[in-house]
Amino acid sequence: MGDLTPAEIVKWLDRHVIGQEAAKRAVAIALRNRFRRRNAPDSIRNEIYPSNLIMIGPTGIGKTEIAKRLANLTGAPFIKVEATKYTETGYVGRDVESMIRNLVRQAVNISAERARSQRGEHLHETVESRLIEALSKTGYKGMDEAELLRMLRAGRLEDAEVELIIADSAPQMEILPLMPGGGFDNPAGENLKKLMQKMVGNRRRRRKLPVSKARERLLEEETSRLLEGSDHVEEGLRLAQEEGIIFIDEIDKIIGSDGGKGPDVSRMGVQRDLLPLVEGSTVQTRHGPVKTDHILFIAAGAFHGSSPADLIPELQGRFPMRVTLDPLSEADLLRILIEPENCLLTQYTALLEADGVQLRLSRAAAETVARTAFMLNDETEDIGARRLRPVLSYLLDKELFGAPDLVSGRIRLNGRAASAILSDLADRREDGNYIL
Q1: What is the CATH number for 255?
Q2: Would you say residue 252 has pLDDT above 70?
Q3: 156 with 299, same domain?
């Protein structure tokens, strides 16, 4: 990722997100600034803060998709949260600090997976060695280890029974949260959970299992042993602090509108509680303290009847970058339907191919889908590109229901056929039966 320039990042995003050039440029600059900060002199590095930004625009136009693709590109820990799920401390709801704990949890999982991948060959060799040792003590005594290994790798011993000393799988206990919105996301709850697991114990006993099951149990055991001796937790904390991305959706929904009365008290409280996280603070997690100073925060909202200027001034200052996304035109919807990698049309084609149906949609048919989706967005609630899925599902209802027993082979839909089917959709909408 470090070698990618902003122009290259935008080019990569173009493969997955149609249009919205201004938003792509903004996130590309924010991402590249992280690389620039890492290469800045030590004396100034901690003084360089992330380019937090707000994306403005209605639902379904690519705000979340841009942020998710950005995280996928970098392999960075990424979580999406909705601002409306949080409430001011003292109100029933989730504590805003839980978003940091969730980010850390994901970062540690990413770090652990990397550790497993780096040592994957060693893990499998260790498991094979233990299986061969167990096999040579059962009905395969006296057999050459090399021959046993060949048989094992060829899958000829999957049903053979071996005897192993392995840890019991302790049943997972469900315990009520300590407080509303708290549960075991907070350090106190996590410590209680660990204490109760220690009370239950991690007993080991001799068990007989087929090789197929024994391999799974041994791999789990060896992986746990590997992770216990690795520094994946410390690396996870570093990932969260230096590379983490938090996408806060619906930030416009926590803007007060009633002079700070009623539910607005809680909305304004959420803004005040968010402020320390975005400004930079230390949050206690189950894995240790985490500083939020260099986590990249990307906020988004439709801002119908409001603007980022309606946020409290302190929070506005922590989101200095703002970009407005364009509404989707009919041409945009067509491109979204057919152009991105693994686009919606490709997905539906693959679904039907799984049942032996080869779907071919003509360009005119795809244009009809886009035109219908644009019309429905214009005349009803505008849900952006999300409208394409129900319209395409309606068009392919016969094939999706009929495959594979009622429909099979090659199916071709041209513009005329698509228009005939989707015109019925408009009629159903007019008589009150529209449900998409």
Answers
A1: 3.40.50.300
A2: yes
A3: no
Q: Positive or negative, the Cα torsion across 152, 156, 158, 162?
A: negative
Strands 282-285 and 245-249, bridge-based pairing: unpaired
Q: Are residues 72 and 140 in the same domain?
A: no
CB of 206 closer than 8 Å to CB of 165: yes
Of 148, 145, 116, 127, the residue nearest 214 (C-alpha) = 127
Q: How many CA atoms lie within 13 A of 80 on its CB side?
A: 13
Same domain, 103 and 242: yes
Shared domain for 245 and 171, answered yes or no, is no
Residues making up the chain, counted from first to last? 436
User: 238 or 134: whose pLDDT is higher?
Assistant: 238
Q: What is the pLDDT of residues 297-343, one digit of tens each?
A: 999 998 988 889 999 999 999 998 899 998 999 999 999 999 998 89
**Contacts with 11 (C-beta within 8 Å, 6 or more apart), sequence order:** none
Question: Domain end: 324, 346, 370, which one?
Answer: 324
CA torsion sign, 313 to 318 to 321 to 325? negative
Contact indicator for 403, 355 with CB cutoff of 8 Å: yes
Mean pLDDT taken over the chain: 82
Which pLDDT belongs to residue 125? Answer: 81
- pLDDT by residue (tens digit) across 189-214? 556 655 655 555 556 777 788 888 88
Coil, strand or helix: which one is 126?
Answer: helix
- CA 67 – CA 23 distance, rounded (Å): 10
| Most confident range, picked from 80-94, 172-186, 232-246 | 232-246
Same domain as 211, residue 119: yes
- Type of residue numbered 283: V
**Helix runs in 39-177, H state only:** 42-45, 63-74, 98-118, 120-135, 145-153
Place of tokens 């924010």: 30
CA distance 409 to 255: 54
Q: Are residue 132 and residue 231 in the same domain, yes or no?
A: yes
User: Are 353 and 420 contained in the same domain?
Assistant: yes
CA distance 342 to 74: 19
Query: What is the per-residue DSSP string for 227-252?
Result: HHTS-HHHHHHHHHHHH-EEEEE-GG
Q: Which residue has the tokens 């801002």?
A: 303
The model's pTM is: 0.76
Tokens of 57: 């625009």
d(CA 368, CA 417): 10
- Domain finish residue from 235, 257, 279: 235
